[in-house]
Amino acid sequence: MITISLCMIVKNEEIHLNRCLSRIADIVDEIVVVDTGSTDRTKEIARSFQAVNYDFEWIDDFAAARNFAFSKASQDYILWLDADDVLLEEDQLKLKALKENLTTDIDSVTMLYHLSSDEFGNVTFSLRRNRLVKRSRAFRWIGPVHEYLEVYGNVMNSDVAITHLSSNQDQDIGRNLRIYEKREAAGESFTPRDLFYYANELKDHRHFEKAIDYYERFLNTEKGWIEDILSACSRLSDCHHELGNGQAAFESSLRSLQYAPPRAEFCCRIGYHFLEKNQYDTAIYWYKLATELELPPDYMGFHNSSFSTWLPHLQLAVCYDRIGAYGLANQHNEKALDYRPGDETMLANQEYFRNKLQELGNEGQSS
Q: What stretches pass through the bilayer (predicted)?
């Protein structure tokens, strides 16, 4: 059986750290915690789990801190987590089984990363990341902000999921943007990936016009990961929508088709454009396509499952209602309810369609 070093970088994480470590401490063989300047009880909590603590002076470089943490690991494999990540009970069992059965020819294991869920327990935003890597391969983290672990070799995709449970309390939400702005002011040359993530930070802070500029710079490089390219099209559409330019938002969605076959998200965005123009047959075409598309099991990009599950069905219910096809509208509303069984809007729709169908039935009987 392999051994595992858990490596973390932390700062002022007393709110989250106990929750994180309590669910994984008995699975890993070593815990390495690198502190970048805590002033609370973070180090004390780490020590209570027999973690080895190290200090690292913060230099606005996440990759540097993570590489330092990795350099202190001593076990066969390295697992990395953030303090506000957790393993739910079922994933603890999956990780234990993975540890017992993993063969040493595997260089990296990817795991799902669940970033958010809705009130009905559906994962609404997720991606897949390289989480468990062979220490002897000396894989390195790249990038001061939105860093990534550069891996190669024999990669295995697992069904283990890490769940992100941030409370956003005491987080410096402007930190990443300030790092990029500092690099920009210093005249640093940005890679395509930098351009993309700087644009994301600008969008998230509602600097929409500048975000559009940086998304365009990124796309014009004609480089970068395909999933980042598609995400840039999506986020460009959002920026234009926020600025009240519906046509540019629509064209940004269409732009995605230059790079890849249709994705459910863009089908929904295009469908919405035609729904707004009362072109229901065309809207129906795109929403139906969204329900039929599937991602490959080894998909690594960001994924919002609503675009392929309840959302297109709900919109199909709207479209069919507008053209008087109440039976089909009701069917799609019921399919949407399968994903969100307590949704008040869908329940109201359910009552509405039942009344409509009853009225039609009564009319048929009296004619």
A: none
C-alpha to C-alpha distances, 145 to 57, 125, 210, nearest whole angstrom: 16, 21, 19
Residue 95 gets which letter from DSSP? H
d(CA 363, CA 46): 71
Same domain, 250 and 323: no
Q: Are residues 116 and 39 in the same domain?
A: yes
Q: Is residue 148 within a helix (H) or strand (E), and if so which, with residue range?
A: strand 148-150
DSSP letter for each residue of 314-350: HHHHHHHHHTT-HHHHHHHHHHHHHH-TT-HHHHHHH
> Backbone phi, then psi, for 339, in 5-degree steps?
-90, -30
Contact between residue 38 and residue 11 where contact means Cβ atoms under 8 Å apart: yes
How many domains are contained in the chain?
Answer: 3
CATH number at residue 193: 1.25.40.10
In the beta sheet, which residues pair with residue 37?
none
Q: What are phi and psi of 337, to 5 degrees?
A: -65, -25
Q: Copy the structure tokens of residue 90.
A: 């079922």
The secondary element (H helix, E strand) that includes residue 268 is helix 264-276
What pTM did the predictor assign?
0.88
Q: Provide the residue-wise pLDDT of the chain in tens; the chain has 367 residues.
A: 999 999 999 999 999 999 999 999 999 999 999 999 999 999 999 999 999 999 999 999 999 999 999 999 999 999 999 999 999 999 999 999 999 999 999 999 999 999 999 999 889 999 999 999 999 999 999 999 999 999 999 999 999 999 999 765 546 778 999 999 999 999 999 999 999 999 999 999 999 999 999 999 999 999 999 999 999 999 999 999 999 999 999 999 999 999 999 999 999 999 999 999 999 999 999 999 999 998 877 788 888 999 999 999 999 999 999 999 999 999 999 999 999 999 999 999 999 999 999 988 766 544 4
Token pair belonging to 104: 């040493």
* Of 36, 31, 38, nearest in space to 52 by CA: 31
Q: Are 180 and 145 in contact (CB under 8 A)?
A: yes
Residue span of the structural domain in which 233 resides: 172-260
With H, G, I as helix, E, B as strand and everything else as coil, classify residue 32: strand
3-class SS of residue 79: strand
Q: Which of 234, 260, 286 is the last residue of a domain?
A: 260
